[in-house]
Amino acid sequence: MIGLAQRQGALEIRQFLRSRESVVFTMAFPVIMILIFASIFTWDITPGVSFTQYFVTGMIATGLMTVGFQSLAIQIPIERDRGVLKRLRGTPMPPWVYFAGKVVMVAAIAVVEIVVLLAVSVGLFGLELPSTVGKWLTFGWVTLLGLTACTLCGIAFSSVSRTARGATATATPVALILQFISGVFFVFTDLPAWMQQVAAVFPLKWMCQGLRSVFLPDAFAAQEPAGSWELGKVALILAAWCAIGLVLCLRTFRWSLDR
């Protein structure tokens, strides 16, 4: 069973790496954004907190959303449109192996992307890595829950577009809007109150907040809307989105357009 998942995951990774567009957009985009924004916005948001420190947390969260949500919401409709899913469904391969392969691919690409983002931020812009085991553990569970939620939502959202051509046009605006309202490009508390309330419904805002608790000083928690990191709430909402995503996957996923 595990061997099947590993082989399917290796296949998915090879297919991903063969697509230059996927590699550039999924892996290079967050790095390019850090290089641009960190080079332009060099001031401190608050004493002891540079814009780079703040921005990199949003870019890590964006990277997780891109590889988990956006890439799957685009990849799967393309495979469905080409008849790949229909052919797979007609083989003896258990359906779960297909999804396991996607999960392995997402996890592998996410790890590489996080390492690259941290290396660029530390090497070029002086980002300070967490200094305690507790913060690294927080980084781990926020990443795991956030990536799981994004992956499940990406699989579920793949059923929205009926054609491969419409997949990018459907998924990309959703991802961009969430980035702008979730405190990725701007300090979250500088956004209008109604925008903060909308963002709080979705997981990206909580992923960013959880990662800020890892990379920013504890004193910065006072700048959050609730005046604290609210890590318990972060975990609860991300876990809720994992459950919501799973239910949506089970109810909406289609192997072919005629179903």
Automatic annotation (TrEMBL):
<dbReference type="Pfam" id="PF01061">
    <property type="entry name" value="ABC2_membrane"/>
</dbReference>
<protein>
    <recommendedName>
        <fullName>Transport permease protein</fullName>
    </recommendedName>
</protein>
<feature type="transmembrane region" description="Helical">
    <location>
        <begin position="23"/>
        <end position="43"/>
    </location>
</feature>
<keyword id="KW-0472">Membrane</keyword>
<feature type="transmembrane region" description="Helical">
    <location>
        <begin position="234"/>
        <end position="253"/>
    </location>
</feature>
<keyword id="KW-0813">Transport</keyword>
<feature type="transmembrane region" description="Helical">
    <location>
        <begin position="136"/>
        <end position="157"/>
    </location>
</feature>
<dbReference type="InterPro" id="IPR051784">
    <property type="entry name" value="Nod_factor_ABC_transporter"/>
</dbReference>
<keyword id="KW-0046">Antibiotic resistance</keyword>
<feature type="domain" description="ABC transmembrane type-2">
    <location>
        <begin position="21"/>
        <end position="256"/>
    </location>
</feature>
<keyword id="KW-0812">Transmembrane</keyword>
<feature type="transmembrane region" description="Helical">
    <location>
        <begin position="55"/>
        <end position="76"/>
    </location>
</feature>
<feature type="transmembrane region" description="Helical">
    <location>
        <begin position="96"/>
        <end position="124"/>
    </location>
</feature>
<dbReference type="InterPro" id="IPR000412">
    <property type="entry name" value="ABC_2_transport"/>
</dbReference>
<dbReference type="InterPro" id="IPR013525">
    <property type="entry name" value="ABC2_TM"/>
</dbReference>
<keyword id="KW-1133">Transmembrane helix</keyword>
<feature type="transmembrane region" description="Helical">
    <location>
        <begin position="169"/>
        <end position="188"/>
    </location>
</feature>
<comment type="similarity">
    <text>Belongs to the ABC-2 integral membrane protein family.</text>
</comment>
<keyword id="KW-1003">Cell membrane</keyword>
<dbReference type="InterPro" id="IPR047817">
    <property type="entry name" value="ABC2_TM_bact-type"/>
</dbReference>
